[in-house]
Design brief:
The protein is globular, with a radius of gyration of 17 Å. α1 packs parallel to α6. The strands form two sheets. Strands 4-3-2-5-6-7-8 form a seven-stranded mixed β-sheet, sandwiched between helices. A three-stranded antiparallel β-sheet has the order 1-9-10, with no helix packed on it. The chain is of the alpha/beta class and 215 residues long. The protein has six helices and ten strands. It has one domain: Rossmann fold, CATH 3.40.50.170. Bound molecules: glycinamide ribonucleotide (GAR). The site of glycinamide ribonucleotide has 14 residues, from α1, β6 and α6.
């Protein structure tokens, strides 16, 4: 078996959520934090969009909500250096990308190695990228779903932590399929973060092992 590259910390975590839109996954994470299901606090919500509904909801609920304007930076690398500074200043343990529609630079991916996870609305490695519910319907697959994975420099390609499958129905539209997948996203994203801070996630090669509760 491959050597252990990473074992998640067992601790009360400090989480950052990055988002660009609606923020329903952010809300699912926040609810799990509020319920105590995830042993963590949300130390930062960051967006590249000033008017992202998720950012406004975070601000309303009194969280530290930061808009960083990409237009204020000459290069993507400069932007991501500023992003990393926001993360490090708050001693964030784990960044959760939740509909953050900006590709992270390789330098930021490297700085956040095993400290950043993403949710993607397809069963990776099928259908990376955008408009993936449409692509799943057009391809004719019978099953789709969602994936929580570690962030790596290659987009939508890091080690897979959890997946959930849903059927693709013959009369599905992009919207009906997206809604079915989203319900599963709201279930497995908090579950992955819960396992992370229980110290139960181990990476060997490109495989992730979920360890038992007493491990
Ligand atoms: C979610 O479906 C998420 O999986 C997707 O954006 C949506 C955000 O919704 N992310 C990606 O497509 C990333 N490649 P939300 O803002 O309500 O959480």
């Amino acid at each position: 078996m491959d050597e252990v590259l990473f074992r998640s910390p067992r601790k009360r975590g400090r989480v950052a959520v990055f988002l660009s839109g609606r923020g329903s996954n952010f809300l699912a994470l926040r609810e799990a934090v509020d319920r105590g299901t995830i042993d963590a606090e949300i130390a930062l919500v960051l967006s590249n969009k000033a008017d992202a509904p998720g950012l406004l909801k975070a601000r309303e609920s009194g969280l530290d909500a930061v808009f960083l304007d990409p237009k204020a930076f000459a290069a993507r690398e400069d932007y991501d250096r500023a992003v990393l500074a926001e993360v490090e200043r708050r001693r964030v343990d784990l960044v959760c990308l939740a509909g953050y529609m900006k590709v992270l630079t390789p330098a930021l991916c490297e700085a956040l190695r095993h400290r950043a996870v993403n949710i993607h609305p397809a069963l990776l490695p099928s259908f990376p990228g955008l408009h993936v519910q449409r692509k799943a319907i057009d391809w004719g697959v019978r099953v789709s779903g969602c994936t929580v994975h570690f962030v790596a420099a290659e987009v939508d390609a890091g080690p897979i932590i959890l997946q959930a499958a849903v059927p693709v129905l013959q009369d599905d539209t992009e919207e009906t399929l997206a809604a079915r997948i989203l319900a599963e996203e709201h279930r497995i994203y908090p579950e992955a973060v819960r396992l992370y801070f229980q110290g139960r996630i181990e990476v060997r090669g490109r495989r992730v092992f979920i360890l038992g509760p007493g491990a």
